[in-house]
């Protein structure tokens, strides 16, 4: 019996730089609390300019999780947070009732022509927390558990796995880990969360002996413990957690429109009106912004 429920191939997009979108998908709207997954880059950016910087924009009802493989990005938000993120660290921004942030490419990264590549995720907040106060936390690479398991380097970013626990504080049961496999290395995927998926960012790998193409998201059967085997050096992300909670009508599906995630349509309509009217707290020192889409 296959350990894979769904196999999702990336959809290429250009948002000023290349991204490959895996979630949401027609096959899976969410995996645990994760409702959005973009693999961005690798991309190099024009020196001495702000081309492809992500100008201030709003979010509600979610937490953004940024993890880089290479390069660097500069985060600024309406709370006054200013944080450079580099490979191996985790930026966690909880939008709650609403927050504005920008993501820009540092000038030294542009000038050096360094490639920026990484994973950007959205985690839907549980119903009781979707209107919470916004917050931002940064976790350096050194505080996140890392160990060797056979031919794999395991970097635990969020949650618990194989007797280790990440210090990253989240609102619901969440699992997120970066896996780097040596050529010839193997790793048995633990049943560490009720819902799980593996994203093959790069490399030649098999799962239980079946070849998997790079830039594929594999949604796993609950409880399955398949074996990854790398025929070349490979990079993967393991993600999941508890299913999204629902209301008394059942179901945990969230609505998504632009940068907004919510359990009810009226929350999204209110956020649209607030952004249009300039009622979100702006990013200090920033005057640019991304306007509300017309659609």
UniProtKB/TrEMBL annotation:
InterPro entries: Pirin, Pirin_C_dom, Pirin_N_dom, RmlC-like_jellyroll, RmlC_Cupin_sf. Fe cation binds at residues 57, 59, 101, 103. Residues 176-280 form the Pirin C-terminal domain. Coiled coil: none annotated. Keywords: Iron, Metal-binding. Its cofactor is Fe cation. Residues 17-123 form the Pirin N-terminal domain. One of its GO terms (molecular function) is metal ion binding. Binds 1 Fe cation per subunit. Belongs to the pirin family. This is Pirin family protein. It comes from Crenobacter cavernae.
């Amino acid at each position: 019996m296959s350990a894979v429920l769904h196999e999702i191939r990336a959809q290429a997009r250009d948002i000023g730089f290349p991204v490959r979108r895996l979630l949401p998908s027609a096959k899976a709207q969410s995996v645990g609390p994760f409702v959005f997954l973009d693999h961005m880059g690798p991309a190099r950016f024009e020196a001495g300019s702000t081309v492809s910087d992500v100008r201030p924009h709003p979010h509600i009802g979610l937490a953004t999780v940024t993890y880089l493989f290479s390069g660097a990005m500069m985060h600024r938000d309406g709370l006054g947070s200013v944080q450079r993120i580099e490979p191996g660290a985790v930026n966690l921004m909880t939008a709650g009732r609403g927050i504005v942030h920008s993501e820009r490419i540092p000038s030294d990264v542009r000038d050096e022509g360094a490639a920026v590549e990484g994973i950007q995720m959205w985690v839907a907040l549980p119903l009781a927390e979707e209107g919470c106060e916004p917050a931002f936390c940064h976790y350096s690479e050194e505080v996140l558990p890392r160990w060797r398991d056979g031919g794999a380097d395991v970097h635990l970013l969020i949650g618990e796995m194989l007797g280790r626990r990440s210090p990253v504080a989240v609102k619901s049961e969440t699992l997120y880990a970066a896996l780097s496999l040596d050529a010839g290395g193997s790793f048995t995927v633990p049943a560490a969360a009720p819902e799980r998926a593996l994203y093959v960012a790069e490399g030649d790998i098999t799962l239980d002996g079946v070849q998997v193409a790079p830039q594929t998201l594999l949604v796993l059967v609950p409880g399955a413990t398949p074996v990854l085997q790398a025929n070349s050096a490979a990079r993967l992300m393991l993600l999941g957690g508890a299913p999204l909670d629902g209301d008394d009508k059942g179901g945990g599906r969230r609505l998504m429109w632009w940068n907004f995630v919510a359990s009810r349509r009226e929350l999204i309509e209110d956020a649209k009106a607030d952004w249009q009217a300039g009622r979100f707290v702006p990013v200090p020192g920033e005057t640019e912004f991304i306007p509300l889409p017309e659609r």
